[in-house]
Amino acid sequence: MSSKVDRAIEAHHSYKERGSKNTAREYRRHIRQFRDYLRGDVDGVESGCDADPFDCHAGHVEDFYQWMLDEGYAPSSVRVAHAALGDFYEQVETYGDDGRRGFPTVVVDVDPTENATPERLDGMHSSSKKDVEGGDKPLTRDEVSELVDNVPAPTIRNELIVRLLYQTGMRRSELVRVKLDHIDRENRRITVYGKKTDESRTVWYQSSLDWHLTQWIESERDAVFNAAESDYLFPTRRDEMMSEQTVTDVVTEAAENADLQETIYQNRAGQSVRRVGAHTLRKSFGVHFINSGGDISFLMELLGHENIETTKENYLKYSEKDLRESVARHGPSV
């Protein structure tokens, strides 16, 4: 086993301790257990997988989850392990390129948790927002305005986050990776990069965002501790780049403040899954784009979908009324 793995686990533990010592301890336990599982150093595994956490794939991860279930771990524990490993690989990706914050210099080509999900395993199936009627429905335009009006402090930054998500349809993982030089303010366009790819696409925003971008970039952003050392649009006082969870927290708190939040269902871990999150703004962008007469093939490009069927499945169902009215107005009658 590479000593880099142990160094990365301890660096990750130190990083998480700043937020919650209990979470850090629990995450480290699961990450170490995964490391030991790959080596064959846990009960019920006769031999190792000839891999370590820096040289494994999604199949190893799902086998680990299945081993946990077979050993009697509750589904909620498996989900915590999934969260722990996903966070571990995210921080390794962030700090491992140049060995910052105590992490060893290491490159992980593919996050093995990205295509591994506990929900595919027996005994792990649970509802999703899509399974619950109306669970993934978009906000109305008035509700988006209410969301903007009720963001928590810092107001300028958080209004900009909500407006950007809504006006561009970006994923939260894409938003936090936007750099200053990705933004063409003259033409109101942003080059967007995915979480695990160098491929890009272009999104556009409206003139109503000009003031917020100018205020943030030229004034408010400079007050952030790491702004001078960061190339990213949204640095924080701790890191050069905002975390995806912070984006979610901004949106969900604004929804609570605006009295727009509601619990869709309780998952098997006993956690409340809420209607309004960062992805809700992406959903709202897409549906409002279609309802305003936008072409679905253009929407596919704007959202970064590889297949137009994905766009149709997720966005046309909430536009059926508008499509029906459009056919009534413009369709042939003979």
From TrEMBL:
<dbReference type="GO" id="GO:0006310">
    <property type="term" value="P:DNA recombination"/>
</dbReference>
<dbReference type="InterPro" id="IPR044068">
    <property type="entry name" value="CB"/>
</dbReference>
<dbReference type="GO" id="GO:0003677">
    <property type="term" value="F:DNA binding"/>
</dbReference>
<keyword id="KW-0233">DNA recombination</keyword>
<dbReference type="InterPro" id="IPR050090">
    <property type="entry name" value="Tyrosine_recombinase_XerCD"/>
</dbReference>
<protein>
    <submittedName>
        <fullName>Tyrosine-type recombinase/integrase</fullName>
    </submittedName>
</protein>
<feature type="domain" description="Core-binding (CB)">
    <location>
        <begin position="3"/>
        <end position="93"/>
    </location>
</feature>
<feature type="region of interest" description="Disordered">
    <location>
        <begin position="112"/>
        <end position="139"/>
    </location>
</feature>
<keyword id="KW-0229">DNA integration</keyword>
<keyword id="KW-0238">DNA-binding</keyword>
<dbReference type="Pfam" id="PF00589">
    <property type="entry name" value="Phage_integrase"/>
</dbReference>
<dbReference type="InterPro" id="IPR013762">
    <property type="entry name" value="Integrase-like_cat_sf"/>
</dbReference>
<dbReference type="InterPro" id="IPR002104">
    <property type="entry name" value="Integrase_catalytic"/>
</dbReference>
<feature type="compositionally biased region" description="Basic and acidic residues">
    <location>
        <begin position="117"/>
        <end position="139"/>
    </location>
</feature>
<feature type="domain" description="Tyr recombinase">
    <location>
        <begin position="134"/>
        <end position="328"/>
    </location>
</feature>
<feature type="region of interest" description="Disordered">
    <location>
        <begin position="1"/>
        <end position="23"/>
    </location>
</feature>
<dbReference type="InterPro" id="IPR010998">
    <property type="entry name" value="Integrase_recombinase_N"/>
</dbReference>
<dbReference type="InterPro" id="IPR004107">
    <property type="entry name" value="Integrase_SAM-like_N"/>
</dbReference>
<dbReference type="InterPro" id="IPR011010">
    <property type="entry name" value="DNA_brk_join_enz"/>
</dbReference>
<dbReference type="Pfam" id="PF13495">
    <property type="entry name" value="Phage_int_SAM_4"/>
</dbReference>
<dbReference type="GO" id="GO:0015074">
    <property type="term" value="P:DNA integration"/>
</dbReference>
